């Protein structure tokens, strides 16, 4: 849970946010974001057993109105309403997701990845001790024009 809290804190998740957890597993991100931070949380999970477990955990926590999980492939889900996306996948999956995130997320949306970075993006913030990387869409440019690096101040 330490990494979960670090990711949510780094992204400054709060009551006005809609968080999407890609590959939501047992639902721990969803429950923490909804219960502790007041965010609306949506999980996308391909494993039907994990979907069922997550739904049971959400119901047991009394968070049905704040958290939900969908069974499906996150590459096929529209992420446009997300203000925060959390990811714990692989380097290859992160790189495959990059164009989708650039295309679908609004400027200012935060992408937080655990363990793996995105090739061509520079993190807006990185916690090397926790292996947590924060990216901000639209405010920044990485190599090749991709979002990811906060541009230097023009002051």
Automatic annotation (TrEMBL):
One of the record's GO molecular function terms: protein-lysine N-methyltransferase activity
InterPro entries named in the record: FAM173A/B, SAM-dependent_MTases_sf
SUPFAM superfamilies per UniProt: S-adenosyl-L-methionine-dependent methyltransferases (SSF53335)
GO biological process: methylation
Record's keyword terms, sorted: Methyltransferase, S-adenosyl-L-methionine, Transferase
CDD domains attached to this UniProt entry: AdoMet_MTases (cd02440)
PANTHER family xrefs: METHYLTRANSFERASE DOMAIN-CONTAINING PROTEIN
Protein's name according to its UniProt entry: Methyltransferase domain-containing protein
